[in-house]
Amino acid sequence: MTATNPPTSKTATTAAPLHPLLAERWSPRALDPRHELTVDQLTALLEAARWAPSASNTQPWRFAVALRGSAEHAGVLDALAPGNRAWAHAASALVVAAAETAAPDGTARPWAVYDTGQAVAHLSVQAQHEGLVVHQLGGFDRDRVAALLAAPGEVMPLVVLALGRRDEGVQLAEPFASRETAARDRLPLDQLLLPLQPVAVDPAA
């Protein structure tokens, strides 16, 4: 069973106003199989990631870009879980986001995964600004993707980003068609807040 996607707006319902780039960002699967990323767009996305904050400015994120139609794109696509391959083949680019978990001298970088997540978040906001979409994929064979990376040292693939432009006319099979039009949902804000235990402080200390 297939369905045609109607024009979709998924602006977040929030307790306080957000910047539209944040409120309107979501993760489509209906991608235009004809769209091609420009050099300027791709550069802007990677620059946004480059300027993310990181612990001690270690900048542990690494990106491998595979443009649709290339052997690299086919290799990354083949390493995705079947459910992701069903639609991600149309992505203008598949980008592997990886974390360098140890410095060149072998020193562990305990915040590398967190910092790489920040870089990907920056990239996703820039993509929204560019009129592009990002769908982050955790369903892939990490060993196979790691083998594709020409990277020295300890580099851990974390996520594959399907980049492109949403196409309202793309027909997705179920269950993806229903997910494309389903309302966005998040936990209420009060469920995300943790109380802090009071601690007695000696004023003389």
UniProtKB/TrEMBL annotation:
Which GO molecular function entries does the Swiss-Prot or TrEMBL record give? oxidoreductase activity
The protein's UniProt keywords, in alphabetical order, are: Oxidoreductase
Annotated Pfam families: Nitroreductase
Nitroreductase domain boundaries: 23-81, 84-164
As for family, the record states: Belongs to the nitroreductase family.
Q: What is this protein called?
A: Nitroreductase
Q: What is the lineage of its organism?
A: Bacteria, Bacillati, Actinomycetota, Actinomycetes, Geodermatophilales
